[in-house]
Amino acid sequence: MALRSPKVPGDAVHHPLFARFYARFSVAADARAGVAALRSELLSGLSGRVVEIGAGNGLNFAHYPPAVSEVVAIEPERLLRGAAVEAAVRAGVPVDVVPGTAEALPVKSEGFDAAVASLVLCSVRDLPRALAELRRVLRPGGELRFFEHVVAPAPGLARVQRGLDRTVWPRLFGGCHTARDTLAAIGAAGFERPAYRRLTVPEGGVPLPSSPCVLGSARKPSDG
To answer: Is the dihedral of CA 123, 124, 127, 132 positive or negative?
Structure first.
């Protein structure tokens, strides 16, 4: 029998200053840094029921293809969740925005055909637990789509990332950690056949600590 994960308080994450900054910056990044095209690539070909964690202000919603029958969008931050509710009204597919955290998803096990993590695994408090929750809620053979900040392949930038992660970066940017090895964590969580490409966001110019990213997918084993 599939069990529902315990619910968490609606304000389990509260970053009001960062939320206001992100709500403005993310819209500009979508328009000027090519992030909107990456969102479309991330979500292309999805169908059925989808759970999205850390939905933020709902910028992914406009990019879900018509074959998606429902999106359950989890967002713990109150201000961003309010913006996501407004974005859900304009979406071309049904979107239900609910409070919750990635580490304790308020949805039933094996209830979704796909899961989406978009620029959020860098900021969850417990990455292995969040990935375990994503695996729990996916049906056997279900797909995880991810677009995430990751540790840089260049040693010099990776050292800068780690230094910032230990000091000011998470405090300034809503808990974001730029040097997480998210690809390795996805494999360690039991997902199989990861396919991905590395990219720099934005392309060109001086790399930022948050510039190294990966975009790809992995599957929950069909045997569960």
So the answer is: negative
Residues with Cβ within 8 Å of residue 165, at least 6 apart in sequence: 177, 178, 179
Task: Return phi, psi of residue 28, to 5°.
Answer: -65, -40
Residue written as token pair 């059925």: 48
DSSP-assigned beta bridge partners for residue 71: 50, 95
Tokens representing 27? 């819209």
Contact by Cβ (8 Å): 34, 203: yes
Q: Which amino acid makes up residue 91?
A: A
Whether the pLDDT of residue 205 is over 80: the answer is no
In this structure, how many other beta carbons lie within 10 angstroms of the beta carbon of residue 1? 4
CB atoms within 10 A of CB 156: 8
Q: What is the tens place of the pLDDT at every residue in 142-172?
A: 999 999 999 999 999 999 999 999 999 998 8
Backbone angles phi, psi at 201, to 5 degrees: -125, 120
Q: Does position 11 have pLDDT exceeding 60, yes or no? A: no
Which helix (DSSP H) or strand (DSSP E) does residue 69 occupy? strand 68-74
Question: Which two three-digit tokens encode residue 115?
Answer: 């899961």
The helix or strand, by DSSP H or E, that contains position 70, with its residue range, turns out to be strand 68-74
- 8 Å CB contact between 104 and 182: no
The CB-side HSE value for 130 (13 A sphere, CA atoms) comes to 24
